[in-house]
Amino acid sequence: MTSLTSLTIAEARDKLATKEFTALELTEAHLAAMERAKDLNAFIVTTPEIARDRARASDVRIQSGKAGALEGIPLGIKDLFCTEGVQTTAASHILEGFVPQYESTVSQKLRDAGSVMLGKLNLDEFAMGSSNQTSYFGPVKSPWKANNRNVTLVPGGSSGGSAAAVSGYLAMGATGTDTGGSIRQPAAFCGIVGVKPTYGRCSRWGVVAFASSLDQAGPMTRTVRDSAIMLKVMCGHDPKDSTSAPMAVPDFEAALNKGVKGLRIGIPKEYRPDGLNAEVAALWDKGMQWLKDAGATLVDISLPHTKSALPTYYIVAPAEASSNLARYDGVRYGLRVPGKSLDDMYGKTRAAGFGAEVRRRILIGTYVLSAGYYDAYYLKAQKVRALIAKDFTDAFEKCDAILTPTAPSAAFGLDDKQDDPVAMYLNDVFTVPASLAGIPGASVPAGLNSEGLPLGLQVLAKRWDEETLFSVCQVLEDAAKFPYLKVPA
Amino acid sequence: MSLDKATIRRVATLARIELPEAELEATAQQLSGIFNWIEQLREVNTDNVAPMSGGTDLKLPWRADAVTDGGITDKVLANAPEAQDGFFAVPKVVE
Predict the structure, then answer these.
(1) What does each C-alpha distance from A77 to A121, A219, A265 come to in angstroms?
(2) Omega of the bond prior to A158 within 30 degrees of 0, cis?
(3) Mind listing the pLDDT tens digit for each residue in A427-467?
(4) Is the ipTM of this complex over 0.90?
(5) What number of C-beta contacts closer than 8 Å exist between A and B?
(6) What domains can be seen in chain A, in order of their start residue?
(7) pTM exceeds cut of 0.90
(8) Interface check B90 vs A, CB under 8 A
């Protein structure tokens, strides 16, 4: 028998239905794998007892023919989603010990569909990072190894724990959140699929806020089909989030077989800057050929404001973050460091509770929103953001989906020197524009570089057109025949 | 563009983050580097462009101005560093 942890969600769903094994057995297999792979530091908190209870309940529902869409499927939940009765930290010292009294809408939907929570996954502090190195609870290690260097690699970020857990067979799928690439970039680094849906598809209620006009939850899985299955459960209108779309949720899984025949695939020239990594460029060319072979037409497009996307993001996101993170003041939850006065208590609590990158972004955000600078920075960025969104609207007049690389490189080493924040921000150069525009995007594992490390291709689609997104992703996945990690013995 | 120590001190005060005097210079240099990079946005012509303030083009919905939740004081206070008599407790602010 193949190892239970090696199954995809779709396979496990079918085998649970035919009672080939029980949900409890499936959960136990994952709990054992998590125990063996503790060294990856993918989880901040594991919840084996909750997992076993939910798996037993799943078995009862399966027996009585009442199985939900994800019945008995063991998932990891990024520690940015509030989970009732289970510590939720956003990987920050300031929230250490915080136990939500409520469940986020997305994790509730996953729970209602019968899935089993294995634990809370590590991330960059407040989802601010591209390497998972800013977590207060220590960095996550990628389960991947370079074939010619003995270095520990980062899993990407911010959803680094999610990517490591799914690629390392510790969970069948995981939730991620994406503000500027935090689902897609770690998915690419760890050789898995990550989908950021259209802004408004998934409710943000109960998700620790980073930048509210950009934050979107999405699935991270080993296959495109599994992401389609998970996303369908995660989406849907929620009156508790005013930006949640009151729209019907399509059957994403049904879109997987549509193919790309007759589709026009846009290739943006701005995503091929001078000095683009040759292996990344070559894989992109391969991806184009795969889609062409499957019947799509390639169209050259231009997204002229691409260059402005990252600096725009680094005004908009910190501005929103500085406002969102004002709530961590040592009064209602989390850390409190005593002070001589209320203000002194605030200052000391926030200095001790936030890590360097979070402090840096709060300061940037506070500055760009402060009197005298608002128009020059924040308003200016909002206007450039409108131009970036318009670039995509114009491009989608000529094409149905866009193909680009997901990240400018493969995963880098955990110990590689990272003292320039701007250099780190460049990891998200290909993912940030779609975040600003609010359009859906996904990363599909498409090949390995010469060091044997995963590279991803990114697909972007029109707002609310995740179905086309999934059709294209499925064709790429089928053509790529990606060499997944072997299940650890 | 370069930010000086006084500016950093002012912004840190606004953000309610205590920054030791010894860290002001390094923080100023780091943020100046980031803002120098951000400055490139000035080259973008945004005349007559309406700012994009959210992630969606959907209209924000209205709802009845009615109480939808409440009566859960214990849950609200469950994570408070300090609570007293059904309230959050903070250092004395009025002498």
Answers:
(1) 6, 10, 33
(2) yes
(3) 899 999 999 999 999 999 999 999 999 999 999 999 999 99
(4) yes
(5) 158
(6) 4-263+398-480 (3.90.1300.10)
(7) yes
(8) yes
